[in-house]
Structures are given as C-alpha cells and as structure tokens.
Amino acid sequence: MNMPFYVSPEQLMKDRADFARKGIARGRSVVVLAYDGGIAFATENPSRALHKISEIYDRIAFAAVGKYNEFENLRVAGVRYADMRGYSYDRSDVTARGLANAYAQTLGTVFITESKPLEVEIVVAEVGAEPVDDQIYRLTYDGTVADEHSFVVMGGQAEQLGRRVKDGWRENMSLGEALRLAVAALGSGEGSSSRTIEAAQLEVAVLERDRPRRAFRRLTRQVLADLLTEGGEAASGAAAPADDLPPADDVPAGPATPGMGTADTVTPDTVDDSAPDAGSESPESPDVSPADESPAEGSPTDESPTEEKPDEGPDTSGTTPGSER
C-alpha cells in the first residue's frame, strides 16, 4: 500500500497564496479614491462589455482584479444577496459591511477547502450622506477584510501605484483632480517611465453623494475626456450625455395635473407647429367672399363640410394570432 504524499499545512497554505498572488498580479490595477462628492473608481480596461467596476445596490459599488469569470460570479452573488436582503427587510439594511462579510466567508472557505483558491481581489464601497460615512472595504483572495480610508490600489503593481496616489491625494479633491491623479498613477511604470492613457482605454465610474437613491454612474465619452483635461471639469458638469444622466426611476415625479398626466411628463414649452398662430393668415386657406362660396350651376357640392373617412376595412381590434400571450 502506498503512503499518501504528506504536505504540511503551512506549506500548503503558502503554495495556495503564492498561486493566487501570481494570478492577481497579471491583471490591470484598479484605483479607488474618495473625492469631495463621493467615491471614484478607475482602471485601464479597453473592453466595453467586460466590466471590472459595477453597481451592486443603491449606493454600493464593486471593483475587482484577477480572473474575470471568478469575480463576475462573486459580483452576481453579491447582487442576489443585496436584492434578497433589501426585499426581505428594508433597502437601508443592505450595507457594504454586510456584503463584505459575506464575501469574506466565501473567499475564506474556498481558500481553505478547495485545491485552487480564487485568483481575485475585490473592493466593496458605499457612499454615505457625509464623507465620514463613506465605507471602503478591500478583500483579498484568502478572505481577509481591510477597512480602508481615502483610497485603495489593488492589482499587479499595487505598492508602487499606492505610493504615487498617496503622494498626490488630499482631502476635498474635486472629481477632475481625483481622476487625473488616478489615471496618472495607472500610467506610471517601473522607475521613471510613464505613459498617457487615453479616455477610450479607461473604465471609470463614481458613487455620487448627492444623487437620489441610485448613486452609481459611469463616466463615458466626452464627459470623461473633459474631466481628464485641465479646466474642462466645469463644462462637463454643465452638460452630460444621455447615458450619464440618472435613470428614469431616479427622477421624482411632479404634482399631477388633471387631464395632462404628471408634471414631469409634460413639456411646458411644447408648441403644436401644425396649428396656425392666432390672428395670422394661412397661405393654404385664402380669403373667400360669401358670394364665392355658392357653387356654380351644375357643379358637384359636398353634403358635409367634414372630410369623408376612408373605408378602413374590417375591424382588427380583436385578438390576432400574433398577439396571444
């Protein structure tokens, strides 16, 4: 009978940790930092379909590095956890701390019991009503939870990028300053070498403190390009593209107007261009004297001033084969 190969628990845990760290180091770094209006997330990601930064719940966001399929499963599990808890209790009972604890249990269990650990490192952040209420949690591959403040950098060059962010970060930074610092840190390489990352190669999102209910918003297109340019922050805040505006359910409904729907669905400046202005003459209807209105002898006359409705065929308002549910 062959004896099983023995490996000490210390060596086994060390091998798993080294394996997970190598896998995480191959991923692009993610920078999470607080600014005066909330929390910003930035990473280099040219893909527009495979997101590394996502929304979890009303005021909670998720960012990750490592293997996409593994942290995507964690994101989906977090969304289900938040939805079930918010539905069973109250939406205010869904917190980043509770979600971080659930993630920690999953990561720790996989790291100890499975032969292969998850090659992921994630951040769960929640924006509060005040800057002191913001929560940022960093979770590593073995389930370790760290309560971070101000900023977090994770990924392959986390230590080097973290020093760059620490040197430039300060309290009450504007969104443009925070994003420029994050992008500059992502573009810094080994030693003194650095590169410029274009807006099209970035994935950026924010948790905005003053946004009602759902605080998550992605920054895309010209808005991001303006924020990364000195002096373009004011212009980007004045006009945002349609995909950067809040969802329709975030806009509070106005008072109801009888016969006109709610106030937020009626445009007061809407003018019917088809109706002529009062007092103006229409070129299509020239003035006709009463004598001219009498038809000529032998000419056909209309029995009714209204236009005859054409025959629309049989009534098709009933159920048709294509409309059955």
List descriptors.
325 residues, alpha+beta, Glutamine Phosphoribosylpyrophosphate, subunit 1, domain 1, five-stranded antiparallel sheet, 18% strand, disordered C terminus
Characterize this entry briefly.
The protein is 30% helix and 18% strand. The chain is an alpha+beta fold. The chain has one domain (9-250): Glutamine Phosphoribosylpyrophosphate, subunit 1, domain 1 (4-Layer Sandwich).
Fourth CATH level, the homologous superfamily: Aminohydrolase, N-terminal nucleophile (Ntn) domain
Number of domains: 1
The overall pLDDT, averaged over residues, is 78
The name of the CATH architecture is: 4-Layer Sandwich
Query: How many E-type strands?
Result: 12
What's the gyration radius in Å? 31 Å
Class of secondary structure makeup: alpha+beta
Note the beta-strand portion.
15-25%
Strand order of the largest sheet: 8-1-2-9-10
Contiguous low-pLDDT stretches (5 residues minimum) are: 234-314, 316-325
**CA distance, first residue to last residue:** 66 Å
Number of helices: 8
Shape: globular
What is the percent of helical residues? 25-40%
Would you give the CATH topology?
Answer: Glutamine Phosphoribosylpyrophosphate, subunit 1, domain 1
Q: H/E series, N to C? A: HEEEEHHEEEEHHEEHHEEH
Q: Biggest β-sheet: count, sense, barrel?
A: 5 strands, antiparallel
- CATH first level: Alpha Beta
